[in-house]
Amino acid sequence: MPEYKNKEYKKGEYILKEGDAPDCAYILQKGSVEVVKRRTDGGEMVLQTLKPGEIFGEMSMVDFQPRSASVRALEDLSLIVVDAPTFNQKQESLDIFTKNLVRTLITRLREQNQILVDLSDPASLMKAAKKGQIDTENTNHTSVLFKEDYRDKLDFGAIRFILADANSQSRQSIKGGLHMQGFREIDEVSSFIDFRNRMKGNELDLILVDNNLGTAHVAEVINNIRHGRTAINPFCVIFAIIDSPDPATLEILSEAGLDDVLVKPVALGNIIDRVERRIRKRKPFVVTMEYVGPDRRSNARPGTEEIPLVEVPNPVAFKALPKQDEKQYLTDQRKALIRVESLKIERHAVQVFWLCGKVSSQVDENKNPSYFLEKLVSVTNKLAGKLEKREDSARVSMCELILSMVSDFQAGTADMAGQDWKEFTSIVAQLKDELGPK
C-alpha cells in the first residue's frame, strides 16, 4: 500500500494555479477550498467549494492537460498528496472502457466549465435560456471572485446599500456575510411596500432585491428609479435575485433597467464579485422612450438607427476606490442627468414625428386614425412637461399648438386631408428638427 504525504496550507494560499502542468492530485483532509476559473473578461468564477474527503487536481492527471482551474484555501487546511506514480498506478488498474469513459467525461467538463464562466450578464443569461442552453428548473449558482490584489484596494464601508428580500433567514445571512466583507451602510426591507417607500428616502449606491417581492412590482420600481421618478440616484447599481433564469422573468427585469441578475441559490462570493465587476467597469446607458439603463445589446442590428450611449457615473466605484475626486464625480453626475433628459426629449420629439406619419398613413388608407392620434396627444403632453422643466417656453408653445390642432382634428373641425394637415405636419417636422438627433 503506498505511503501518502501530507501537506498544509494557510488561508488564501493557492494549492493549484490554472494553466500549470500537473504533477499530483489531492485529497482534502481538513478545511475547505474553492475551485476558481478565469473568465474571458479577466475576472474569476468560483466553480465549487470542496470539503474534507473530496479530491481535486485529478482531471489534469487523467488527460495530461494543464490545470483547468485554480484551487484556493478558504481556511487553514491539510491535504493528502497523491503523487503521479501512485495516481497512474491506480488509473492503470482500470479497464480500457472505463479509462476512455473517464477521459471523455473530463473533456466535456472542461468545455462546460468554460461556457459557464462566460455566462454572466442578464443579456447572456436571457439568450441562453431562450435557446434552451440553461436548465431553468435546476440551476446551481456559483460564486465569482476577482484577484486578491485588486480586492485589497477596495473599501465597501461607505457604499449605501439596501437588501430587499421577503425571506428573513436569507436576508440575515446575506447581510451578515456582507458585513464581514466590510459593508457597513446596509438597510433591509422585507416587503414590496417597504421597498417602494424606501425609494422616497435617502440616497443609495447599491440595491439588491429578490423578486420574491413580485417580479412586476420590482421591475416597476427599477424603471421608476432609472427614469428619475424617485429620490434615488438613477445611476445606482441594481442587482436582482431570481429563482430560476426563465426567459420571461429575465426579460421583464432586464427591460426595467437593472445592472445584473443572480440566480438562486446565491453565494456570498457571487454578490461580492458582481459588486467588484461594477466597480471595475460600468456599462454605458441607453435612453429610449421607455428604457433607461445599461446597454444590453451585444451589437447593433444592421440598418437600425444608431442609439447614442451615455457614460454614467459609477457610485460604487466612487465609494469603494481610494482617492476619488468628489467634485468631479458630482459634476459628471449632473452632466449625465442633463444628457439623459436631453435624449429623452429627442426620443419624444422623434416619436411625435413618427406618430404624425402613422396618422397620415391611416388617413391615406381610409382607416380610423383615432388610436395614433391619442398616442400623439399622450407623447406630446409628456414632451411638453419635460420642456417646461427646462424652461423652454418656445417649444412648449409649439407642443401646445400641436395639441390644439389634434383636438380640432379629433372634433372634426379641421381638415386632415387639406391645408390644415399640411400646416400641422410642418409644425411637427420643425419640432423634430429642433429637438431631435442632429
From TrEMBL:
<dbReference type="InterPro" id="IPR018488">
    <property type="entry name" value="cNMP-bd_CS"/>
</dbReference>
<feature type="modified residue" description="4-aspartylphosphate">
    <location>
        <position position="210"/>
    </location>
</feature>
<protein>
    <recommendedName>
        <fullName>Cyclic nucleotide-binding domain-containing protein</fullName>
    </recommendedName>
</protein>
<dbReference type="InterPro" id="IPR001789">
    <property type="entry name" value="Sig_transdc_resp-reg_receiver"/>
</dbReference>
<dbReference type="InterPro" id="IPR018490">
    <property type="entry name" value="cNMP-bd_dom_sf"/>
</dbReference>
<dbReference type="GO" id="GO:0000160">
    <property type="term" value="P:phosphorelay signal transduction system"/>
</dbReference>
<keyword id="KW-0597">Phosphoprotein</keyword>
<dbReference type="Pfam" id="PF00072">
    <property type="entry name" value="Response_reg"/>
</dbReference>
<feature type="domain" description="Cyclic nucleotide-binding">
    <location>
        <begin position="1"/>
        <end position="89"/>
    </location>
</feature>
<dbReference type="InterPro" id="IPR014710">
    <property type="entry name" value="RmlC-like_jellyroll"/>
</dbReference>
<dbReference type="Pfam" id="PF00027">
    <property type="entry name" value="cNMP_binding"/>
</dbReference>
<dbReference type="InterPro" id="IPR011006">
    <property type="entry name" value="CheY-like_superfamily"/>
</dbReference>
<dbReference type="InterPro" id="IPR000595">
    <property type="entry name" value="cNMP-bd_dom"/>
</dbReference>
<feature type="domain" description="Response regulatory">
    <location>
        <begin position="160"/>
        <end position="279"/>
    </location>
</feature>
